[in-house]
Write a structure and sequence with these properties.
Elements: E1 22-27, E2 43-49, E3 60-62, E4 64-69, E5 77-83, E6 91-93, E7 97-102, E8 106-107, H1 119-125, E9 130-135, E10 146-147, H2 153-157, E11 159-160, E12 163-164, E13 188-189, E14 194-197, E15 200-203, E16 212-214, E17 225-226, E18 232-233, E19 240-249, E20 253-254, E21 260-270, E22 276-287, E23 291-299, E24 305-312, E25 318-328, E26 335-344, E27 357-358, E28 373-381
Parallel strand pairs: 15-16
Antiparallel strand pairs: 1-2, 2-7, 3-6, 4-5, 4-9, 5-8, 9-10, 11-12, 13-14, 14-15, 17-18, 19-28, 20-27, 21-26, 22-25, 22-27, 22-28, 23-24, 23-26
Amino acid sequence: MSLPGTPATGLAGRTRWAAALALAAVCLLLSDVAWSVDTTPLLINYQGRLTDSSGAPINGNRDVYFRYYDASTAGNLLYAESRTFANGNPVVVTLGNYAVALGGGTRVAPPNDGSAANFKSMFAASAVVWLEIEVSTDGAAMTPRIRVLAAGFAINADLLDGYDSSDLVKKAGDTMTGALNLPSNGLAVGTSQLVVSGGNVGIGTLAPAQPLSVAGTIQSTSGGFKFPDGSVQTAAAAGKVIGVTYQENSTRATMSAVASITMESFTVNKKSPTSLLIIQGTVCGFTAVNAAMCSGWKYGSGAEVVSQTMIYGGGTSYTQVFPTTAVIAGHTTTGPQTLVFRFFTQDSTAGTVPFTRYNPNASDDARLGQTKSVYIVWEVEP
């Protein structure tokens, strides 16, 4: 290293460093984590000594460049900073000794500034860092480079409450091994995507009422569903019920002799255009007449389905329960529609009744309470 007023011939090889240059203390903050020390400095205290070719200490200010590499020779430039007259921060050398805070200089202009985003991130980007120094008047970098070693704050910063960084799970792109123990009701993902509340797990709901409550569709892509009896269902069962409508009537009514009489009319909300409506019912009547009538069910604008032919034998007054069953298929219109149940004569002959009283009670027979007729409509997906 040649300096003004000193011969260049006396500095060569190992004597280019007249004294060993050491890292006295390393004070680095290596990540964005807040450590136990509130204000860890982002600087490294570096002390060195400069002499001329005869070994005499140098005095005065000098322009000095500090470069950081990932190898002891050659390698990749990670970061470069300078302390110069032009920047207003030259290195002060007194009796050969100087001290600088590495990381506190002026970053060298691109493209000679290195690959690291800043001085701090350089230590996270590279497992090893080597320091190279050049005094501008010498025109060449000093050798050998010096490896930056951790001490002081850096040793503390490598651990978080005694845990190494490899013991911690990153926010993204990391895999945890072992169990994750959470406090009671300590899991919540999104607004209501996944919650634990009261020992129950909720998906799509904030208030799960069962060990597993799902607000939405459950899909099994393989394996099916296993039930408490140990059976496994891997496919939907044929004849799946997708809707049920219940209708009952306990109003006593006197029947008139007509060719057609409507017994019930109620709304059924059909959910699927391909489903069947299976109708089952019991009609309660009190009769003392001889009659023969048909019964039929008509849904919406569809065709009437004849459910059965009913023949009644009279002569003695008594109460009967008459079954009615029908299947409505091919009705593709969905939504709420009216379902009508009636008795009628096939030849439109008037003057006939199926029975004299609908839903008889004690006024018809002292032994009776109020009877009722019941109808159930099952919507089934074939």
